[in-house]
C-alpha cells in the first residue's frame, strides 16, 4: 500500500451488477485504477475515502475527492464520497452514509448537481455523473458510465452512427467476462482481414470487415473505462493498431483496383504518388497535432476552437475516409474514391497547418491559448 494515498473503503452493500460486475468489486477496481488502495475498514491514522454504495459515480469524482482532504461529495442531501483526513473519526460519516444518523459536519460539501471539474488532459470543464444505484434497474447508470467514457471530440461515425450499438456490445462483452484486450485482439483480426480483402479487390466484404473492426475499436476503450480495466499495455496495443493500420488499408485499396476491375487499375507511378500523398498527409497531420500539444496549447488542437472540434468530425482520419470510399464504391468507382481520399487528405492537412500557424501567431502576440471547452 502507498502510505501517501488515502484508503478507499466502500460503505454499505448493494446487490446491483454493473456491466456484469458486482457493484462493490467494480467500485474497488475503479479506485485501484487511479492508485487508491482498497480496504474493508478504515485504518487508524490513515486518510480514507469513503464511498456510499447506494450511489454510482464517474471515476473523475473519485479522483477529485481523493485529492481534496476534508471534502464531501453529495447528491441532494445524501453523502456520496467523503475524504476523511488522517486522525479524524470516520464513524459519523459512515453512519450518515448508511442512514444511521451520524454527522458530516466539518467537511466541505461539493454538490454534484452544480459542481464542475476540469479535465486536465483535455483542458475542458465537465460535470461527471452521480446517480443512485438501483439494483433492479442498472441500465441508467450503465448508460451514464458509457457516455462518460466519451471524452473530448471524435469523428462523426463514432459519435453518431454506432454510439448506441457500441453501448450494447460493450455491455454484452462485459457480461461475458471479456477483457478490453480480448476485444482489441478480435478487432485486430478483422483489421487484417479487411487489409487482405482490399488487397484482392473484394471491396464490399472488406468494407464489412473494416466496419466490424471500427466498431470494436470503440468498444474496447469504452469497456476498459466502464469496468476499470485500463492498462498501459492495453493502451499501447489499442492505439498502436489505430496509428499504424490506416496507410496499409489505403495501399491495399489501390492494389486491389486491378483485381476488382482491370480497367480501373492505376498507372504504377500515379498509384505511388497517391499512396505517398495519403501517407505523407496522414503523418504530417499527426505531427501537427503533436507540435500543437507540445509547443502551443498543451492540449489537443481539435479542442482549441469550435471550428476545430467541428472539423474533427470529418477530418481525414480512418472513419471519414471510409465514408468517402464507400460512397465511391456505391457508384462502382473505387478508383475515384481513393483519389478523393487523397484530395481530402491534402485539404485536411492545409486546414490543420493553417490552424497551427494561427495558434503560433496568437501565442506570439501574447494571447492566451486555451480550449473553448475550458
Notes on the protein architecture:
With 374 residues, the chain is an alpha+beta fold. The chain has 14 helices and 11 strands. The strands form 4 sheets. Strands 1-4-7-6-8 form a 5-stranded mixed beta sheet. The protein has a two-stranded antiparallel sheet with strand order 2-3. Strands 5-11 form a two-stranded antiparallel ribbon. Helix 7 runs antiparallel to helix 8, helix 11 packs parallel to helix 14 and helix 13 runs antiparallel to helix 14.
Produce the secondary structure layout.
Blueprint: E1 7-11, E2 17-18, E3 21-22, H1 23-33, E4 48-52, E5 55-57, H2 59-66, E6 71-75, E7 78-84, H3 91-97, E8 108-111, E9 117-119, E10 124-126, E11 130-132, H4 139-148, H5 156-161, H6 163-175, H7 180-199, H8 203-227, H9 232-255, H10 257-260, H11 268-297, H12 306-312, H13 318-330, H14 334-364
Parallel strand pairs: 1-4, 6-8
Antiparallel strand pairs: 2-3, 4-7, 5-11, 6-7, 9-10
Helix pairs in contact: 6-8, 7-8, 7-9, 8-9, 8-13, 9-11, 11-14, 13-14
Task: Provide a brief overview of the structure.
Helices cover 56% and strands 11% of the residues. With 374 residues, it is of the alpha+beta class.
Amino acid at each position: 500500500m502507498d502510505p501517501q494515498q488515502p484508503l478507499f473503503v466502500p460503505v454499505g452493500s448493494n446487490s446491483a451488477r454493473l456491466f456484469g460486475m458486482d457493484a462493490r468489486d467494480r467500485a474497488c477496481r475503479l479506485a485501484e485504477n487511479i492508485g487508491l488502495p482498497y480496504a474493508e475498514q478504515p485504518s487508524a491514522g490513515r486518510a480514507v475515502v469513503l464511498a456510499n454504495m447506494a450511489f454510482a459515480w464517474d471515476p473523475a469524482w473519485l479522483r477529485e475527492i481523493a485529492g481534496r482532504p476534508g471534502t464531501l461529495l453529495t447528491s441532494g442531501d445524501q453523502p456520496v464520497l467523503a475524504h476523511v483526513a488522517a486522525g479524524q473519526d470516520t464513524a459519523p460519516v459512515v453512519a450518515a452514509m448508511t442512514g444511521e444518523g451520524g454527522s458530516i459536519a466539518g467537511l466541505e460539501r461539493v454538490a454534484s448537481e452544480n459542481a464542475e471539474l476540469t479535465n486536465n488532459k483535455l483542458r475542458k470543464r465537465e460535470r461527471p455523473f452521480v446517480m443512485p444505484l438501483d439494483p433492479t434497474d442498472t441500465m441508467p447508470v450503465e448508460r451514464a458510465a458509457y457516455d462518460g467514457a466519451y471524452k473530448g471530440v471524435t469523428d462523426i461515425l463514432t459519435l453518431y452512427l454506432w454510439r448506441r450499438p457500441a453501448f450494447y456490445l460493450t455491455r454484452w462483452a462485459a457480461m461475458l467476462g471479456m477483457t478490453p484486450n480480448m476485444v482489441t485482439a478480435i478487432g485486430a483480426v478483422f483489421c487484417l482481414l479487411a487489409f487482405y480483402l482490399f488487397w484482392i479487390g473484394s471491396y464490399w466484404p472488406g468494407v464489412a470487415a473494416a466496419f466490424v473492426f471500427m466498431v470494436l475499436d470503440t468498444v474496447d476503450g469504452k469497456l476498459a473505462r466502464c469496468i476499470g480495466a485500463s492498462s498501459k499495455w492495453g493502451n499501447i496495443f489499442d492505439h498502436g493498431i489505430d496509428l499504424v493500420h490506416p496507410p496499409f488499408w489505403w495501399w491495399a485499396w489501390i492494389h486491389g483496383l486491378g483485381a476488382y476491375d482491370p480497367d480501373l487499375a492505376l498507372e504504377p507511378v500515379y498509384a505511388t504518388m497517391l499512396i505517398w500523398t495519403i501517407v505523407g498527409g496522414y503523418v504530417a497531420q499527426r505531427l501537427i497535432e503533436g507540435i500543437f500539444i507540445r509547443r502551443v496549447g498543451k492540449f489537443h488542437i481539435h479542442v482549441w476552437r469550435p471550428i476545430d472540434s467541428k472539423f474533427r468530425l470529418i477530418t481525414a482520419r480512418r472513419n471519414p475516409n471510409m465514408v468517402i470510399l464507400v460512397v465511391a464504391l456505391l457508384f462502382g468507382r473505387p478508383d475515384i474514391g481513393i483519389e478523393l481520399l487523397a484530395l481530402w487528405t491534402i485539404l485536411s492537412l492545409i486546414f490543420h497547418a493553417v490552424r497551427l500557424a494561427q495558434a503560433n501567431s496568437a501565442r506570439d502576440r501574447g494571447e492566451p491559448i486555451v480550449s473553448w471547452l475550458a
